Amino acid sequence: MTEARRKLSEAAGNTVTVLLAKQAEHLVDGHRVKIVVVGSAPKGVAVAIAILFKRLASELVLIDANEDLAKAEAEDISHAAAYLGNPKVVGTKDYACVRDAAVCVITVGSQSREDLQPVDYLEQNLQIFKDVIPNVSKYAPNSVLLILSKPVDILSYVAMKLSGFPPNRVIGLGTFLDSCRFQYLIAQKLGISTSAVQALIIGESGPASVPVWSAVSVMGMPLKDINKEIGTKTDPESWGDLHTKVIDSDNELITKKGYHSWAVGICAGEIVDAIVRNTCACFTVSTFVKGCRHGLEKDIFMSLPCVVGKNGVQSFIRLLYTSKEQELVTVSCRKIYEAQKLILDKIE
Question: Matching InterPro entries, A to Z (predicted)?
């Protein structure tokens, strides 16, 4: 028996020792990014997949009260780890696993029935947040919170209050998905690529959202310069119908498939990307607006064009809204606050 074969024979049963010629005595855990997704329902899994396909996380933790479900989803994803950048994917109900996370995405308590409006289950979701947010902020005090749960504007405010985080480190998905849908529908009507269209929706994430028709453009060409009545009741081309379609999108998908997940997951992935890589990307996300701005002297979360980076919302973008758009934003703000004030005494 040759010397090499003898050594292999002696090492039988210890494949690691044979395969790896020398192991470092002190392995240094280098630059690792942990991202947490709370909630393992379809929306949470879609968020996780979006994050992993962009290879943003070296460790992704799925947390759910149903630990078996969280573990099963994590195992299912892990089977394809070789094509996701070899991340560590964990499923658990233990919030200690949140420790040192860079971003925590909260998806629990989302709408699941088409016959309910977000305000109808605000109380139930508030109770869920009273358990989730303190646990997350305890173990990841330097993280950025990304809220997807509905009603997103009010629950983002709740998350800020319960976590004690500075306002910039709490972000609501807000009207980001609405803006994406708006952009898509405009492109469909024009018969062009979605990427050629610039369009945004601000204010409440819901029926009182405000389409900024004055800012809709194609490759820099404002559509309002072509159609002065665009988006108004007197518009001969009925562009305003697109905003109605945006508002109805969630309920239509819930009616057809029971939930909506993929688009919201991809949008959440883009926000996480901006935070982790500090890209300073611009999104219409829900952010803290303190008093007397936009015509309402109350503190609320609402969607505005924001610059997002490693510190969360780093700044707002000031747009020259029309007087009508400003009026609609004030109405939108007031609607958010009217719903929010119902639960203020329960979080102060």
Answer: L-lactate/malate_DH, Lactate/malate_DH_C, Lactate/malate_DH_N, Lactate_DH/Glyco_Ohase_4_C, NAD(P)-bd_dom_sf
